[in-house]
Amino acid sequence: MEKLKEYVSVKDEDHFYHQGAVELLIFNFLLILTILTIWLFKNHRFRFLHETGGAMLYGLVMGLIIRYVTKSPDVESGTIYECEKLKSGPSTLLINITNQVYEYQYKREISHHNVNGHQGNAMLQKMTFDPSIFFNILLPPIIFHAGYSLKKRHFFRNLGSILTYAFLGTAISCIVIGLIMYGFVKAMVHIGQLKQWEFHFTDCLFFGSLMSATDPVTVLAIFHELNVDTDLYTLLFGESVLNDAVAIVLTHSISIYSPKENPNAFDAAAFFQSVGNFLGIFAGSFAMGSSYAVVTALISFMHLTKFTKLCEFPMLETGLFFLLSWSAFLSAEAAGLTGIVAVLFCGVTQAHYTYNNLSPDSKMRTKQLFEFMNFLAENVIFCYMGLALFTFQNHIFNPLFIFGALVAVFVARASNIYPLSFLLNLGRKQKIPWNFQHMMMFSGLRGAIAFALAIRDTESQPKQMMFSTALLMVFFTVWVFGGGTTPMLTWLQIRVGIDPDEDLNVKAASQSASNLDKNTTKAESAWLFRIWYGFDHKYLKPLLTHTGPPLTSTLPEWCHPVARLLTSPSAYGDQLKDGDAVYIINNDELTENYESSAHIPVPAQDSTGSLQATGKEDIQEGDIGLGGYKLQLQQTAGQPQKNSLA
Amino acid sequence: MEKLKEYVSVKDEDHFYHQGAVELLIFNFLLILTILTIWLFKNHRFRFLHETGGAMLYGLVMGLIIRYVTKSPDVESGTIYECEKLKSGPSTLLINITNQVYEYQYKREISHHNVNGHQGNAMLQKMTFDPSIFFNILLPPIIFHAGYSLKKRHFFRNLGSILTYAFLGTAISCIVIGLIMYGFVKAMVHIGQLKQWEFHFTDCLFFGSLMSATDPVTVLAIFHELNVDTDLYTLLFGESVLNDAVAIVLTHSISIYSPKENPNAFDAAAFFQSVGNFLGIFAGSFAMGSSYAVVTALISFMHLTKFTKLCEFPMLETGLFFLLSWSAFLSAEAAGLTGIVAVLFCGVTQAHYTYNNLSPDSKMRTKQLFEFMNFLAENVIFCYMGLALFTFQNHIFNPLFIFGALVAVFVARASNIYPLSFLLNLGRKQKIPWNFQHMMMFSGLRGAIAFALAIRDTESQPKQMMFSTALLMVFFTVWVFGGGTTPMLTWLQIRVGIDPDEDLNVKAASQSASNLDKNTTKAESAWLFRIWYGFDHKYLKPLLTHTGPPLTSTLPEWCHPVARLLTSPSAYGDQLKDGDAVYIINNDELTENYESSAHIPVPAQDSTGSLQATGKEDIQEGDIGLGGYKLQLQQTAGQPQKNSLA
């Protein structure tokens, strides 16, 4: 008898294991389908439905099947039981049912209106996985990869504009969406679709902040494939990556903005607390991410030079690199900061310093590993978004709200891009032309971050309405705008097929022919950038990597004993080679070069010189290529590596 | 007021997110420490505590800290609540507590005696993660990697012996441990430490089967680093990998062996049902794993030749490869088979067929990816085993039982290795010498699989006792025997520093000098192997890969239209090259070669010929090197790949 019961319990347990396997299998199946589709699309150069759109479509179909084919086997799950003895929900609950004790784990607080019939469908429930999986597992590799593959030279050249779009633009977008949605909410209350107390202005702002996160994946993949104009690419890439970070922190700040009295009235103290909170979290996350990267750089640097060769064991090097980068994320989360922001800046800093210290094998390994993780995570997210339309159990689709969101998102994007571009063009030497502005307007897709922020809290009815609307916006923008990217590029006559390295000079030369206002003031960012570049090149690079001039030549005389201790022996060997690099920097290479080539249409000698200089800088900085994987792969496929048979 | 409550709930949620981050951070920290230690050990050529032992040590210390520093904050969790309305435990429980509905998820059935004070310590609870994570996430990459990196030539040469040790040896070991433990249990009942009804003979057999899984990680890592004699390496590697698969299926079969009446009496029907179950699950898992690999081979083959170049997109190729291999595991689990067995044979088949179809870039990528995943999973498991000693909440340490297990494990290992080696030596041309047998006896470490099988069910007191004992056995064997491997190798005068490729000929030559009984009958395995080899080479390889002779030359005349359709164009190009390969096969290369070099001490011409043949076969079979990562890394570090800067 006892044996039999044990047998049953083993069976039960097995059933649970198999459940988990089935769900993972569904995801695997969707991903395999997606990969085969990508391959088919690539093969036939089909660009009207992008692969991310395809992944969503497959997810959608699978969600439909799961929803209407699987049945709810568990009738007891929908019932609410009373418990008078408890005063709050403990994290673990032990319940005695017919003399058997069962252990239950706390999952969440649930509103009465959410208790519906689908609650008990175990399949649906398991497919809608925990939002924390998004934030802790799926997003970090994508964001890290974005930071790690940042094209630094072009990024820094447009730093001022990117920061303006990311910070100011996101704030504008958030406020505009918030205001428009508040108008629509008022209208909905007026016609009786909504109760007044359910939807405050802060809720509208919350929706505005989460809908302000634009997606870097879909459009940029197409841009990269087509080798679109590098400046446009960099502006969009920089904007959408940084804007994600800003939107995440902004959403958090708004969600904890809690005026003491009337929630609709403006509370200055609470507002400034939120602003302070925003700045504190952003700065803290930035510091956390960078410091982990600096630690990694130091460890790999020490190993490389002072002690022994960690680079003889690329596996250990890669492991350390991976774990320290992930730790940056986790530490920020554990400290109450924003892990995504930390991991973004960790990626940027890793690419800038640590990458130089890695062995060639590790450089390749880390790049491929992060590329692969990014690829998988991206596709899982898009499949999941498709699934969520049918598997999420508490959708509230309100046509007026959805229409409002659609209007709000477009107005907000327009009032972000056009006014800011106008302002930026006042200061920029190299203007942002109209077709670029239109393309940026068109590329305001919503994607993973907006979805992840919306799914994080779906408890109250307003939040559920926001989630459903955000999901529809993602579908709409990815399918319509993602699919329309290639026609739009043609229509706006934006140049494609540009070699990003030659671009600088070609642009400068063409600029000199067309655009003759050379006497505009230098952009602020260039000035800021030069100071940073000098400091970085003279002190940080020699300290953290084995490139750049030795510290002994850059630090003042009295620091020499310390400098000698900290300098890599290989830097001494490079002293001669780096001599001219220092010369170039001291002679203000970055503006000098640029301006001189802008003066003379095709300055043969100078252009070659600058090509050499930039090429060299590329190698020194360990620039690791753009975000997408296609170009990269085609290149490496062209030069097959020798495969050693052990 | 409502706002405030929402605020609190957001805070609560945040708290939950951060908890997860803290635990992952602890693991990250342990892994970083382990990597730094490995690097230190490697640097100082320190081999008395192996890195896996180090990982366990760190886990142990961390477990101690967590156990005695963190406190139980949640008093209500230890209480059991009554619920009369329910008849069985639903998968989701909704409870109304002070007008708030909380959702609880079913975790497990719990025995009354397991409800103790530590139940409520959330930190401890979260650190002891779900056993299904072991089986679904951590073990598959390790086992797949073992299969993928199998050194096929040596493996097949010793196939008969390996199968004998794996199947017969594991069965012997299981029965011997079961019998000895039953004796100890009887003694414990006699002195009153245990109640008779708690521990049946089947429980003892269950313990025997889980303790029969030997660990391939620690010893083989050392062997690989030292380049120990290839035959000994292959015997141990093959045995421990296959033996894991056998032990897992055996444990499952024993756990569902349920005699109808007296559990101590022998029930023939139930016994044969278990045996049938064992065979069915093993064969089913084998078929599942191989068929997924064949599908992968076909897809990659088709892409390569018939349609277009999937190999132009190594990322897609790698992704497909990874997902299909994982799907093999998940499908087997979902179908009620054993995923680990499926993934092992999937790995072997992938290495044999699919690997040949991959682009050079993908070969490198898949190899590095699986190496990396294997490395991480391995170290996580060993850290976790260290942690579990202090964080697992229901340990039962019984000195007599532990002593019994220690004795049983040694007796069982001895009655596995020595008698089977004696029997095998009767049939083997090339004997297994005494020092090899002693080394195999010594290398019977217990590791991840034994632990994973034991942690899968820790509900009843006997199972808890088994788990605690298994954990101690892992510690003991890894520290003592793992640490003692290098001295033991010296003491037994086993050759180290052997180039695995030259080994075949050197061995054959030395064999001819020392061992003169050339007229022993050919081993069964060689005969079986030759048939398989011929079939594989003539039909499967040309069908699934683009190596080997074209199907048009191997299939009968009337099949030519089909054959032409299925043959890769590149195979036609290789026709001439493959002509002599067919010749070698037809002339019974494998024994021919071997015997001829055994006859003449150093047959200059023949030896070169066989070297060429084996070298060529290596390339054709896409042999991808041995399991460990160290040698590989040193080799690749020696030939740094060109790193293309995009």
TrEMBL record, chains A, B:
It is a multi-pass membrane protein. Belongs to the monovalent cation:proton antiporter 1 (CPA1) transporter (TC 2.A.36) family. InterPro entries: Cation/H_exchanger_CPA1, Cation/H_exchanger_TM, NaH_exchanger, NHE-6/7/9. One of its GO terms (biological process) is regulation of intracellular pH. The gene is Slc9a9. This is Sodium/hydrogen exchanger. It comes from Hippolais icterina. Gene3D superfamilies: 6.10.140.1330. Keywords: Antiport, Cell membrane, Endosome, Ion transport, Membrane, Sodium, Sodium transport, Transmembrane, Transmembrane helix, Transport. GO terms for molecular function: potassium:proton antiporter activity; sodium:proton antiporter activity. It is found in: Cell membrane; Recycling endosome membrane. It holds the Pfam family Na_H_Exchanger. PANTHER family: SODIUM/HYDROGEN EXCHANGER, SODIUM_HYDROGEN EXCHANGER 9. The lineage of its organism: Eukaryota, Metazoa, Chordata, Craniata, Vertebrata. The chain crosses the membrane at residues 20-41, 48-69, 133-150, 162-185, 205-223, 278-299, 320-353, 373-392, 399-418, 438-455, 467-492. It comes from the Eukaryota. One of its GO terms (cellular component) is recycling endosome membrane. Residues 33-491 form the Cation/H+ exchanger transmembrane domain. The keyword Cell membrane applies. The keyword Transport applies.
